[in-house]
Amino acid sequence: MSITTFIIISIIKSVVVLGVLLTAVAYSVWLERKVSAHIQNRWGPTRVGPFGLLQPVADGVKFILKEDLTQPHVYKPLYIAAPIISLVFAITSISVIPFGNWVDIGPWGTYLQVTDVNIGLLVVLGITSMGVYGVALAGWSSNNKYSLLGGLRASAQMVSYEVSLGLSLVGVLIIAGSLSLRDIVDAQRHMHWNIFLQPVAFFIYLISAYAETNRTPFDLPEAESELVAGYHTEYSAMKFAMFFMAEYANMVTVACLATLLFFGGWLGPVLGPPILQMILPVLWFCLKVFLFMFLYVWVRWTLPRFRYDQLMAFGWKVLLPLAVANVVVTALIVAWRA
Amino acid sequence: MIPLSYYLLLSGILFACGVLGFLIKRNIITIFMSIELMLNGVNLSFVAFAAQWHALSGQVFVFFVMVVAAAEAAVGLAIIIAVYRTRETLNVDRVNLLKL
Amino acid sequence: MTPQTLSPLLCTIPLLPLAGAAINGFFGRQSSKKAISAVALAFCGLAFFMAVLIAANFSSASAPYSFPLAHWLRSGNFQVDFSFYLDQLSLVMLLVVTGVGFLIHIYSVGYMWDDDGYYRFMSYMNLFMFFMLTLVLAKNYLVMFIGWEGVGLASYLLIGFWFTKDSAAAAGKKAFIVNRIGDFGFLIALFLMIKHFHSLDFTKVFAQVSAWPTEVAGIGILTAIGLLLMVGAAGKSAQIPLYVWLPDAMEGPTPVSALIHAATMVTAGVYMVARSSMIFERAPTAMMVVAIIGTLTALFAATIGIAQTDIKKVLAYSTVSQLGYMFMACGVGAFSAGIFHLMTHAFFKGLLFLAAGSVIHGIGGEQDMRKMGGLRLYMPWTFTTMGIATLAIAGIPPFAGFWSKDEILWQAFNTSWVYWLIGVVTAFITSFYMFRLMYMTFGGDYRSPAVQEAHGHNPHGHDDHGHGHGEPHESPWVMLGPLVILAVLSVVGGFVGYGNRFEHFLAPVFQGATEVAQEASHETAGRALEYLLMAVSVSVAGLGWLLAYLLYSRRPQLPARIAQSLGGLYQAVAHKYYIDELYAVLFVKPVVDGSTTILWHDIDQGVIDAAVNDSADAACHVSDSVRHMQSGNLRSYAGWVAAGGAVVIAYMVWMGVR
Amino acid sequence: MLHLILFLFFGTICVAGAINLLAQSHPINSALSLIAVMASLAGEYLLLGAEFVAAVQVIVYAGAIMVLFVITIMLLNAGKEERTQGSRVAILIGVPGVLIGGVLVAWTLLHRPDMQTVPIGALKGDPSDIARLLFHDFLLPFEVTSVLILIAIMGAVVLASRPEAIARPHRSTPGPQETRELVATGKDHR
Prior knowledge:
The structure holds four protein chains of four kinds. Chain A is an all-alpha fold. Helices cover 68% and strands 2% of the residues of chain A. Chain C is built from 28 helices and two strands. A two-stranded antiparallel ribbon of chain C has the order 1-2. The longest helix of chain C has 48 residues, at 579-626. Chains in contact: A-D, B-C, B-D, C-D.
């Protein structure tokens, strides 16, 4: 196809994905509130719309309308830049995530994916690793002890767990023999899901992912009991919303990644008419991602928070060696098979 | 199709900027960053030459440079912290006890 | 026993004293004096016993033993082995060294008992024995040289035994340095041998030498070698002009003087010349030089001996002159006679020294004869034995000295009557000063101030070994025993030479040499002449005795008047002809001044030190100017680096463009 | 054409970031501009086809090393740098030297007749190929570098953690009271 059509299609895909993503983010917030409410034997949001389904909209409106406070003692440029950075990187990382297989739209066909990079996994990792700056800079530029502590903790924690996260994926890569997410998914056909081949890697990934996204039980950067709200203590209104969205966007990304890497992405029973055959994989994919999001919430309201030293010790002394061992074992097995 | 010399020129500029930073900056951390800048310039030239000679080893060298840079960053920052503990300054002009 | 079974003893004989020296030297400080003396005596006596064992079945007919201990040097066809060798000549030396050495060891037990450095002394003595035996038993000149240097070392150590005394230390140094001069000649002789004979082994060298013709012209390799060897011998055996160290060597303890500077070491030169007889026989000039030096030394030293008042000095000069006799003998080709005199001299001179030591010991360290006298009453044994020795050295028949000295004079007469004349005169002087010594020491009555000041402690004693005491007393038997034995030897020792038996015994060694000299000797002059000369020498000795009796027993005041009448001459004699001062002016002062001004101040300080210091200063200044670049400022360093990089880039670009 | 545009785009960001690094007086700004430089350099790598290098550039440099820098700046609470005139040499000799060298290099580069041109994605640095090179041809250097890393880690630990840090808490790296101190002194970092 010509360059122009390429650009057009890319723009369209981006817009669609962006919309989907933001909606997902918004409704994962709603989901969290609902689930947590039911876990705590409450009702959660019910007023706005049926089952409070319009609650996210209300939240958005509230965020937009609220006054945007900027304390005098902050370091403004970074104070403003920080939430943007984190949101931007959080959203960008979705760009290489494939949601489904090849689809034909009239004369054109395309992958359900903004762009298919053959090192997609690395791109995701790189972008998420860039996300650290948002948190760190926010904490530092707020010029507030809680923020600083939160930022420090966040950056340290993310950098540390990034290592074991990356290592946990190496096993999958060895099996798939490619860095392209699409190839990795294709490698899992016939129910050869990596969850079965790489259980250890999966759990390491899961834990590290929780730490990466600063979710309980690793949400020390925003440990309310000790740090008020961590790195976004000083933030309000839209800036705070950005952090909020960034966090959930990251959750979505990580969930997608987990689905792709360990649960065979969009793979699943496909049947029925062509339309259905086009839809079903996406459905499977969304279902799996939804499961992961639910798991997130479930864990959050089940497990208590770690202590910081426990967190670090766990990351460096347990997860990392485990991941390395997993890599070695996998490599040995694969080499022995070949 | 652009001449390779552009890439080399860019890397040269980056390197020169790094050296300049080393020369004119006082903050030891910034100086350290300019070292990283130089390394990056060199990396670019590596990749560019790899493209010229169609030899991947150029890109492999980049990895080695990166590893060395990482090690250097770790040790160097540790040193900076140690220096800051003793001197309580990050200004290299104030860390010159060798001077007469 | 066969040579095969005996020859291994050859290497054990020297090594035994070495072991003793090592044991005493390393562990002596802790162990008791009894243990020390036991060790020293045991090893020394064992060596003596082995020597006797070998001598028991070794006749003039038997072939030389040789025992290669180890390979030493090898370069091309030149090879030196560490091997020992025993023939009649070395056997005689072996017996003398071990025997007399053993006796003197026993003696020193008594003499040095109270000294603090007892173990040191014994260790040194054993060490000396080791080196001396190495010298005697060497199979080639190099091993001999080891022993040669070794005895020098031992003598240095023992002369300076009381190193806290400046005079002793100085004497040790003097001996060492003067010996160096002689060793220098010896070494050059060795080099010449290596150059021309490609070997240092006695047998090989002599085998080649025997093929050479006699250098009648008086110029040639053999002459050169001979003369150089003679230089070495003169150094070791205290001949003109290198005799000066021996009298000073009397600073050492008396047993040392007896063993090293009378009986054994100083005779090493004679032994070496005799050993090299083959070479000397074919170098008449060298022979003549040896004879002349010997003769002059004999007369010269004897005359000095007249005026000495220190008992040991007298004996020292007499030693020098007796050595002169031996060299005279060697010089006239009568090597066997020289060795014979060497042996007898070892007996009676060792005895003399020991007796003198006993005297000194008995009167508390006094050495000045003018403070002695009348000691025959206090120490009869010492008196008798010393008297025997005096008779022997004076050449009164039938004592040992008579036979050997007479033999020498007879051989000298056969060569030239001048040697004989001087020899006889020397004999006269010898007997005179020896009996003078006897009368001053034992005759008359005791003149020591120590008695007048009522048994006061005698502070000024050369051998201050612990106790000074006023009342003279006889020495203990451990000291007297050796005296007696040596006395017996000095009485009977001469008879081994009766009827040239000694000469025939040594014949196999010297046959190569003597065949040249002998055809002249006996036949030309008949027995009558020999007896006549004998009578002359005896009567001369008697005259010396008589004169001494008149001067020092009848009219003790006469010598002083004579001395005054002689005036300058007496002074000259009393001051040893100012030889030491002469040497000081001629050699020592130039060397010292030269090395002080030129070597030290000009070269060392002016050139070497200056170079070092100036370069250091230059470096200092340069770095002082460059130092400021090292400001310690990181950015400055970076600046320099950047500039340097720019220069490099510019150079490379330029090269590329060109 | 597209190639040139992209190149110029990323290149401009690179140079701008580099110059900004020099211009900024606050280390955190320098750090951010350096991150920008690195990110855009990744873009340059992509243009040259070295996609793996690009990814690793982002992950390692931008994602790890620079995070270290930022954390350090935050820890030491580095303020604006003071304009001390420490070294005349650097200014009088170093800067001209750099300029001369740079000009010379540029001149040489631009005057080389045989300088070839490269298409977009000139040499595709496929991860597998690079891995093959890295683990076959360059195995020994690889291992040596790993040892180097190990040593660097140990050195960093030894250097950064000091026993008397407990004795002087306000100088020690970790610990809450230290951070409190940091923030208390951190009132003025602009």
